[in-house]
Model the fold of this input.
Amino acid sequence: MSIQDIDYGTPARESATMVTLDIDGRTVTVPEGTSVMRAAMEAGITVPKLCATDMLDAYGSCRLCMVEIEGRRGTPASCTTPVAPGMKVHTQNERLGRLRRGVMELYISDHPLDCLTCPTNGNCELQDMAGAVGLRNVRYGYEGENHRSAVKDESNPYFTFDPSKCIVCSRCVRACGEVQGTFALTIDGRGFDSKVSPGALEQFMDSECVSCGACVQACPTATLTEKSLIELGQPEHSVITTCAYCGVGCSFKAEMKGTTVVRMVPHKDGGANEGHSCVKGRFAWGYATHADRQTKPMIRESIDDPWRVVSWEEAIAYAATRLRAVQQKYGRGSIGGITSSRCTNEEVYVVQKMIRAAFGNNNVDTCARVCHSPTGYGLKQTFGTSAGTQDFRSVDKSDVILVIGANPTDGHPVFGSRMKKRLRQGAKLIVIDPRRIDLVRSPHVSATHHLQLRPGTNVAAMNALAHVIVTEDLVDRNFVADRCDPMEFARWEAFVRDPRHSPENTEQYTGIPAAEMRAAARLYATGGNAAIYYGLGVTEHSQGSTAVMGMANLAMATGNIGRDGVGVNPLRGQNNVQGSCDMGSFPHELTGYRHVSDDVVRQQFEEVWNAALDPEPGLRIPNMFDSAVDGTFKGIFVQGEDIAQSDPNTQHVFAALRAMEIVVVQDLFLNETAAFAHVFLPGTSFLEKDGTFTNAERRINRVRPVMPSKTGKQEWEVVCDLATAMGYPMFYRSGAQIMDEIARLTPTFSGVSFEKLDRVGSVQWPCTDEDSVGTPIMHADGFVREGKASQGRFMITEYVPTEERASRFYPLILTTGRILSHYNVGAQTRRTANVAWHPEDILEVHAHDAEERGIRDGDLVSIASRIGATTLRARISDRMPQGVVYTTFHHPVTGANVVTTENSDWATNCPEYKVTAVQVTLSNHPSDWQIRRGDLVEVAAE
Done:
């Protein structure tokens, strides 16, 4: 069945005042400010329209939606006319019909009449409206001046721009501005010469277009059309599912033809995205059917042997036999596993259950270890809950937005667009980042303050902001007295009041001018609703946990917690990194962040699982690697994570994997880690999964299969088979049954079920009973720290400089991040047309640093740290301050993590990716590591 969204023509309005009017004899009551068009549509009365759509503000250009209103002259546009009490509206009569047909005649006289071969035939608004108004002939003929000879623009890999079919309704231009906030499109010319233009008469690929798809979605004709639709034809049914890229968790309609995806259309009712999308979710789903997909299990005795395709039964038996043999030889704790932040909650849950119940230990960890583990630790220490505080809609009520260590427009673009919209409405922005991200200055958006600090000094900056707030008496004393532990606050206040934390003193560390720091602190504390959004530029430091606690301190001190528009909000990197943590993927915690040493909690799991559980925490990922090199950790199950590419100090990771006697990889592709594997268990893409993802706002979304599994199994079925083969029987009939068990054992999920999600769309945990629809805003009434049920806890955040320092031999600091077109290690996006925007990782170098080294734009350079070196291409950039270089990590051939060190967060071992001392020099050949890697990959492929 195809899911059809109703387009109400104009956005919904919120108002406590209701207005009653008469439309075509029907009594209609709607909120004040609602358009006549929307009021009619909500009453089931269709008004013809072309320029109007409910994703955009009313425009009133097409004149097709004209109506008659008793007592008013003329025929006003219903999209731009607000309702009024007692208004009497007529949407259909002979006069209106005649006028509408006249309007349609003008459109059709300048439109190609190729409907039978047009890709949108059967789903074209212009075609529909011609039928709706009863147009049967065109009096003007087709021989006069027209635009039908305009040339197509095929430059974008995902959609075609055919200006000959354009009716200049401006919907695409408005969507680019109002929804996406890029302003890449404009109307060039006037009158009959008007036409849509990307940039200054450029092609789409040469313009500022970010390929979010908003223009394609808004277009009412075939002017902007997905190339997949042109190739495959109109879809015949659709399924609602959830994107498998970043932590925004966008909902999409997968529009299908049989088992083939025709296109992914952002779902208007998606709680996280509300009908918007980015280039990855909208277009970059082709990796799911890429030729590189491995769909058959494979085994081999040695990593030097070629792979051998086997049956599921043989692969499972082989993996179980070798894992048991390792335990018999080296002990129960000699094996472990890693869960995936790209897999569903249900898949993650069964993996950690297998490790605890079948392996008999707590040696389970997840990729959150290397990204947001400090978030879990820091927020739990201060607020009592290991998650962000707000929903994404909350930013619509923010007056001040503080973005630190995050790049929302590249890493979380749909939320980034929402944030930009709020900034265009007048909210103030503070950016704390060594790099000049787009939010600092882009069309119609600019930061009030860009605190361009030195990498590694986040804690010093947090303390300086706090010092100003305390010493200038900007603390919300009422909030602190009502909601926070008074003794902890007094201790913290005395700590940050110390002059050593003043902006003047910390300037020597941060590089931020004291006056600018003070101004930013005053704005955050006094500017109204103030919200903090942060990313890996906070957590991936030796003081990541300290910085998270520092942000929580700021929010509590200023009362910016517990309501719309405020809070402390981690922008989670991967689609289910929040869920993988919720599901008990850390070695010391069971689901819901409850410690394995808690006898009461552990007994609940033992009773349900029918297994004795170890009360001692297991090994973290870095401990696993170190123990492998030491010879005591000998086997690992890796679910959907490419640790050989994503983890720091690549050569150490290689050595650890090479030292193991059994490595089992469950994934879509033969990735870098699979080069060291003995068993490869093919996984399923998000298009085949049946389960849930939990996004950065704690929103639990359904992931529904739109096509059959290409492997013949769900990933959780494979894990259950492996656990059973190892002697611990595990069986579920469906993903729904797994969620029921999760809800039974996890208080924050106790009201969650597939049935509820299918009924209400999504919920945000805590969702604690059958009637609950979740908790969009956390800590509205109090905090949830154990033993201090309602009191927030201020933490001492002493600034400790990182051990990684620049020196004479390594004078530059490397920091890393993402780019819009790629995702994480690139395993998915590199297998799509997104490579057109970013075919290789690039090193951004300040002009001064480049000139000192004789480096020109585009030169091949070597970047070397104290532990390794690699080679990539340089780009001269003013985004970075002098002394800092920047690169992405999306391409394995680059090996950015060859140079990153094993320095890590003091509390969680999250690697310090963001601070690595390096030297950059001209080069004319690959690094030794890249040559060795090439040999390894070649052997693995054989």
Q: What stands out?
A: Residues 386 and 477 are 25 Å apart (CA to CA). The longest strand covers residues 869-876. The two ends are 44 Å apart (CA to CA).
